[in-house]
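Q: I have 345 residues here and want to know how they pack in 3D. Can you give me a structure?
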Amino acid sequence: MDNIVDVIRTIATTREIPEDVLFESIQAALVTAFKKNFGSNRVARIEFDRETGEIQVYSRYRVVEKVIQPENEISLEDAKEIDVMYELDDVVERRESPEDFGRISAMAAKQVVVQRIREAERSSIYEEFKARENELIYAQIQRISNRVVYFNLGKAEATLPPKEQIPGERYRVGARFRCYIAQVKEETKAPEIVLSRTHPGLIRRLFELEIPEINDGEVLIRSIAREAGSRTKISVFSRSEDLDPVGACVGPKGTRVASIVDELGGEKIDIVEYTDDDAQYIVNALSPAKVTRVDFLTEKNVRVVVPDYQLSLAIGKEGQNARLAAKLTGFKIDIVSESALEEEE
């Protein structure tokens, strides 16, 4: 146990583990090691000098009239030979010097230190990535197993489960992707870090990354509706009347939004302007379709009338345009053509 105190203090400093945690853990481990090697029924107290590293072992015996368990009991007669002040049910301590305990204690201390280092590293990794939850990370694929893609994050490994993968996207070992850190959970062996390529948050972070006006707070994102791998609608608005929020996001000749589309493997992105005028917001959300008028049937239910030739565009393939517009605005949208409305009336 030479220099054990110096070793503990060095580890405490370099690994950022409180000294008290290490000392107390080692002390508890020494008691366990003593009982394991010299009798499970033994009751012991360990003194660990935090200055010199010296270890003292004391066996504890309860004073009884008649000894039944000699490992932890002592007769009143024997106790009074040690000190006449002892009475029944008092505890007598005897200093022990068991053979091989020096070696055993060194092993126990080493095991505790190694365990605490692992726990500290695991905790550190968890806290680091928990703080980065809902952020982007650019990482390399390490392996693929049972359709789960594993990314190397340096200190840790993260998973991209099938449900978080963009449909049709190809993944290969060594390839790099920007992913959204969807969830970080503390587990026994190592933190579980779940990435996503389908989360709407990925869109938000990519726009913040690529659009300076969003990153600076001049343009704000109001809402995102996404069907990953196919299409996304995002509504934005500007703090300044002099700044076109949609134009800022599209960029010169569409270069800004094009880089995001490329990152998503060709996923279509509709950028629309948010407004407090609900009717106009719904019209914007149904873009690129043209709308004749918006009728509010209830607080959150609307009927949108479109020219006959715009009906299929407004609804979209398999209802996607209408579905995304409804999700974006928070309204239930019923789309009808002008001719169908005339027939109803």
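Q: Anything worth noting?
A: The chain has four domains: 4-129, 132-196, 199-274, 286-345. The two ends are 94 Å apart (CA to CA).
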